[in-house]
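User: Okay, second chain of the day. Same drill as before: sequence in, structure tokens out.
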Amino acid sequence: QIFQINDVIAEAIKRYPFENEQQYALVTAELKANYVVSGNKELFIMVLFNLLKNALRAVAKAGKGEIRMTTTSAAGENQLMFRDTGCGIPDRELPNIFRRFYTYPHSAGTGIGLAFCRNTLEAWGAKISCRSQENEYTEFVIQFPIVESNRRVH
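Assistant: Same drill. Structure tokens below.
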């Protein structure tokens, strides 16, 4: 499947089961570059849902923060930056967050989510990385391969 990144981000935000308007208001999408992605639209929505769920949990835990998704395309590189300014992740935990069954905080979730995100994106030739500063932010960067623009968009 070929899809426009911004359309799917907008759809995911619209479909996400936010608990209330205040939670919804925490999310901003800066859709600067509407590049084409080759992958599965529904699976990508699940990737975004996973990142949103984790970010909303981090903001709630910190009692502060916001969530921003930004699409950019420069120098032959298509990126989605997904950043929350919640509780952050300690340095010692960062190397493990994409490991299956690993959770942080340790009582949260099943440890399947970020492993699913990485495996799904890698199957499409994309890469996901994370950087974080405890008590400041967590930022996931997804780098998508360039897709020939003459392929049909779904």
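The radius of gyration is 15 Å.

User: Thanks, on to the next one.
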